[in-house]
Amino acid sequence: MLSLPDRGAFVGRAAEVAALQQAYRDEWVHTVLIAGEPGLGKSRLVSEFTSRLGADVVVLVGQCPESGDNGVPFAPFVSIMRALVRRIGIEELTTLLPVTRPALSRWLPELAVRAGSAEPESDRIRLFGEIVTVLEQLALARPVVLVLEDLHWADDSSRELLAFLVADLAQRDLLLIATFRPSDAEPLRRLVTGLRRNPGVRVLNPGPLTKHEVGRQLAATLGREPDPGIGTRVFQRSKGIPLFVEALGRALRANPDRAPEDVPADLSELLLDYQSGLPDDAKALLRLAAVAGSPARGRLLESATDLTDGALDLALRQLTEQRLLLATDTGYEFRHSLIRDAVYDDLLPIERKRLHTRLSHALIADDTLRADDWRMGELAHHAYAAGDLPRALTASWAAAAAAESEAAHGECLRHLDRVLALWDRVPDAAMSVGVDRLDVLERVVEACHHGGIVEHGVAAADEALALLDATAAPERAARLYYYRAVLKNQSGGGSVGDLDRALELLPEQPPTVLRGEALAELAAFRVFSGDAAGAARAARAAVEVAEQTGTPALAARGYAYQGLAAVTRTGSAITYFEKAHAAAADPQTLLTVVLWESAALVTAGQHHAAIEAIQQGLRAAHETFRFAEAGPILMVKWAQALTALGRWPEALGLIDESLTGQLPPLSKAALLLCHARIVLAQGSSAAAASSADAAAALLSDGRWARQYQLQLRTLRTDIAIADGESLRAGEVVVEALAADDLATHHHEVWPLLATAARIEHAPTDLASIADQLPVTTVVDTAHRAVFTATRSSDPAAWDAAASAWRTIGQRYDLARSLLGRAEAELAVGNRSAAREPLREAAQLAAELGATPLTEAAGQLAERARVGLEVSRPEPAAAAPRTFGLTPRETDVLRLVAQGLSNRQIAAELFISGNTAGVHVSRILTKLGAATRTEAAAVARKHGLIEPD
Question: Which of 119, 302, 350, 814 measures 20 to 30 Å from 582, CA to CA?
Answer without folding.
Answer: 119
